Structures are given as structure tokens and as C-alpha cells.
Amino acid sequence: MKKLITIIIFGGFVLVAGCKKFIDVNDDPNRPINVQESLILPPAELSISHSLNAGLLGIYTQHYLQTVCLNQPVPNTGTYLMTNSEADGDWSNVYVTILNNLNSMINKAETNGNPAYAGVGKILFAYTLGAATDFWGDLPLVEALKGSENFVPIYTAQEDVYKAVQQKLDDGIADLAKDSKKSPASDDFFYGGDLDKWKKLAYTLKARYYMHLTKAPGYTATGQATLALSALENGMSSRDDDFKFSYPGSAGNENPWYLTFLPGSTLVLSSHLVDELKNRNDPRLPVIVAPAVATGEYNGKDIGEDFVGSLEDYSIPNTFYGGASSDNFLLTYDEAAFLKAEATLIKLGAEAAQPIYIAAIQSNMERLGLDPASAPVMNYLAIRGVLTDANALQRIIEEKSTANFLNIENWVDWRRTGFPVLTKVPNALSDIPRRFLYPQSEKISNPQPQQTAKLTDRLWWDAQ
Q: What percent of the chain is helix, strand and coil (3-state, nearest 5)?
């Protein structure tokens, strides 16, 4: 893999206009205005992994899910303190760094006869747009990404954003089937240019976004489950298809979650998460959670308490997720299996979902290095494995949440299903947040009526 720090630096300049031509000597070689698709793709992919799924708002989702805790006095993020300006960086990353660059790459690829790059770009565009609308709701879309044509684009309703996500995925799949002069290879950090894996990702993303709308106004759970199951027939078929970013682990090239929990960051795992794994005798506990340095015990911090302790008294993620060279998982085969289990539950009931649910848990156990036939795993499945009409949705989403540790998708699942069960933390400033505030920079530069939204307001698909 190329040095990531180089990509970050270059990526910041990919689409920044250089000096206007007067004579050739006025061209600035350090600020290119016309670059190849292969130079746009890597920084966009890095930003999606590093700054979207694991950026500041990605960390905030883990606070709202009560996965992490700040070893700081309250009020803080864990008690739902947020200002509009805290969303500025993530909004800029979404629009300036990712969507703008991907839009340029797609246009360039279509002009150059490289539909493989266009297809990959559209799938990444859909992923980013889907994550952004699940953060904020209505978004600038139809009038956005047009450069100087419109500096104050109106916001597109979330339902239409969702339709655009599905259309981008369909268009991306169609592009991947076309002959292409050039195709991604080593410049593709996710799949190394394997277009079949990109196609499987696109279909799995379609299933994910179909299931988001099981309670949306005008949609039915059965209808969305039917669409999801159809998409999954062409989706991920093994863990080799995982949508993940692999980090070398050298200085400047570390997994973002490793950097997030570095000593001195004051962020640790919560007692809510650690105790839940302990109480269930979940054999994944030592793989997910590192023992506290001071005690050697698995110990999370209570959210909302005003006590500030020693960081060495608390656990942080273990090296599978939190090591310098750990993979950052954005969408996995395990999630695809849980999506299938939930969709099957909706259509056919708990008994039909049972074997799919068990297989999903076993797949995640294997991913984390555990033998599915071992006594600890078998004992766990004996307790957690039997679905009934009363417990099926809760069990599926709880196990999916464990399998999707540190993934922003878990916040979507909690909002649309109510699972895992969460209660407002002590000293909370509000109810549990259901969306992010629009950024202050956007409120100043592009005022829109949606920007009055509060953290506790529901998104369009987040129906009662």
C-alpha cells in the first residue's frame, strides 16, 4: 500500500483550482486542476474510512450507543453536549473531500471511456451520501456539487436522497458490466480493483438501505424485506467480500480507532458495553475488549458520572479493532447475514430466520478467531440462539450490533428498531440523540429551514 500520509496530503489538493493561465509559467504544479482517475480514487477511499466512518461524528455515534465513555467531567459528548460547529469538519469532509472528488472522478471516467472507475465512484458516492443523510436528514443534492453555479443549494428531502442512493448503486452496477479502457488496481485500497467484489458490495448496500426504510412513511416492512432479500442474492457471499480498509500500522499510517484511543485521549470503553459482554459470557469479550492496564480486568467506565479516574483503570478496544494495523470494517459479510436474518424474520417468521441468525453469529465468531464448535461458543449459542416471535428482532439486532462493533450503522439500527435497548444516561442534557446538528458553517453560508433541527428530532425514516 502506498504511504497513506502522502495520499492525505495529495487528496487535499486534488480538485483545488490552480492559478488561471496567463502564460504557462503561471501553472502551479503543486495544485493540479486535471488529474487521472487513479489519483482521485485513493484519497477519497481513505477519507471514507478515516474521516467518515471513524471521524468525529463516527465517534459521537459510539457515545450515543453507549459504547464509549469520556474520562472527563460532565457535561460532555457522552451526556449529549454538542454544538453546530462540531459538525463543520465532517460536513466538509463529506462534500468537499469525498463527494466533490468522486463526482469529478465519475465525470472524468465517463468522458475517458473508463466505466469501471465510474462504477466504483458511484458506489462510493452512494455509500457516502447514505451515511450523510443518516447523520443529518435532508441534504443539498440536486443543486449541489456544481461549483460556482450555485453557492446556496436548497436541501433535497431525505426520501428523495434515499432514492438517489439506490439509483447511484444501480448505475454503478451497470457501469461495472461495461468494457473499460482502464480499471482500478493498486489505487483501489478496498478491493484492489476486483470489480466482482464491488458489485457484491453494491447489492449489499442496496439491501442495507432497503432495510433502513422498514418503518418509513409510505413503505412497508414486508416490501422492504422483499427488496432486501432479492438484492442479497447478488450480495456478499463470504468474508472475503468485506468492505474494509487495511492499515499498515507504521507511523502516520495507523488505524483511526487506534489513534482515537491512544493514551491521553481520555476516551475509554463504557461499562454498558463491557458489562453486557461479561453478563452474557460472550466469548468475543477478550477479542473486542482489552483488559485495563492497572488491574488486568475488563472494566468500562460509567457514563454520566462526574468522577475522573486513571485511564489505566479502564478498558479500551483490543488489537483486533483497535490496533495500529487493524482493519477498519465498513460493511461485512456478517452484516449481510444479519440483514438476511431480519428480512427473513419479517417475511417468514422466527423459525425461518433461526438458521440464518445462527450462521451470522458463527461467521462473526470465526472472524474474531474463535472456533464455532468450541465449548464457549456452543454454550453461548445455546443461550442466545433460540429465536421466538417475542425476542427475534431484539436478538438479531443485538448480535448484529456486537458484530458491527464501532460501526456507524449501529446507530441507524437503534433508531429504527429500538435495539439494543438504551436508556438516557445520568446527567443527560436531553433524550438520546437521533440525529446530528447541521454545521455552523452551513448555517452561515447556506441558511435553510431544516437547520433548526435539534439532536432529538427524528429523521424522515425514523417513524414512531
A: 55, 5, 40
Give CA–CA dist 220/324, Å, rounded. 43
CA angle centred on 255, ends 252 and 260, rounded to 5°? 95
Per residue in 133-165, pLDDT (tens digit) is: 999 999 999 888 876 567 799 999 999 999 999
**What's the CA dihedral at 403, 405, 409, 414 to 10 degrees?**
90
Is the whole model's pTM more than 0.90, yes or no? yes
DSSP string of 31-60, one letter each residue: S-SS--HHHHHHHHHHHIIIIIISSHHHHH
Other Cβ atoms within 10 Å of 1 Cβ, number: 13
Query: Topology of 36-193 in CATH?
Result: 1.25.40
* CATH, domain 220-242+332-419, list 1.20.120, 1.20.1070, 1.10.1740, 3.40.50: 1.20.120
3-state secondary structure of 289: strand
Query: Are the CB atoms for 236 and 333 separated by under 8 Å?
Result: yes
Backbone angles phi and psi of 274, in degrees to 5: -65, -45
